[in-house]
Specification:
The chain is an alpha+beta fold. It is built from five helices and ten strands. The chain has a single domain, classed as q2cbj1_9rhob like domain (Jelly Rolls).
Length: 221
């Protein structure tokens, strides 16, 4: 499955309004657009990390996740639950290290499950994904950040997603990020649920620094 879908203005406005407000606080500068000024500010690694963490804690993501769930459930006609938490990505020439290599999302999904991804930009210029035309991976390599990646990158097609559009695809689509493209994107993942369900595929782990702080403070009193 690979198709474009409409993302409502209500969803986009709720996310962007909250993101403008949050980044204005974090960066100490009024942010009203995700433009060159904004991307120049997050070239700084510390700023980028703070904004990234903050964006992934936006309350509006929960509203949008639920609205998107209702939308695609009608298209897929399956019972769905959350596969991974809602995620915001900051991509651009400033962070090529973290661009996703050629991969399938099923590689973060437990065995014998069916999953779906909704991916959409919240910056006005939109964004692109590179999709494998033949969708067949043949060569693999370990990746220090992503774990594993596919290295045969021939026959890739760029799919442009405009502001107000999203891309709905299943776990088997072979794809990767486009280099040197400034964009802010949201992705939601859902999986089918049936009588064979036993556990969630992705677990949340307490941050090591948080655990270290409280262990030191409470155990050494």
């Amino acid at each position: 499955m690979l198709k474009k879908i409409k993302i409502s203005n209500q969803i986009l406005r709720k996310i962007t309004d909250e993101a403008y407000s949050a980044s204005s606080v974090v960066l100490g500068k009024k942010i009203k657009n995700f433009d060159k000024k904004f991307f120049s500010l997050i070239k700084n690694k510390k700023n980028r990390s703070r904004v990234f963490e903050c964006f992934n804690m936006l309350i509006a993501l929960n509203f949008a996740n639920y609205e998107i769930y209702n939308k695609i459930k009608k298209k897929i006609k399956k019972n769905l639950i959350i596969w991974t938490y809602p995620q915001v990505r900051l991509d651009g020439s400033f962070s090529n290290k973290f661009l996703s290599p050629l991969h399938k999302d099923e590689w973060v999904l437990d065995k014998n499950k069916k999953g779906y991804v909704v991916w959409f930009p919240i910056n006005s210029d939109g964004g692109s994904l590179l999709i494998s035309k033949n969708n067949k991976e043949r060569k693999y390599k370990k990746d220090n950040y992503w774990g594993i990646k596919c290295t045969n990158e021939e026959n890739l097609e760029e799919i442009k997603i405009n502001y107000g559009e999203g891309l709905l695809f299943d776990k088997n689509i072979l794809h990767k990020s486009k280099m040197n493209q400034n964009r802010i994107t949201v992705q939601f993942r859902f999986e089918e649920i049936n009588s064979n369900f036993s556990k969630k595929s992705v677990t949340q782990v307490i941050d090591s620094e948080v655990r270290k702080y409280w262990s030191s403070r409470l155990l050494n009193r």
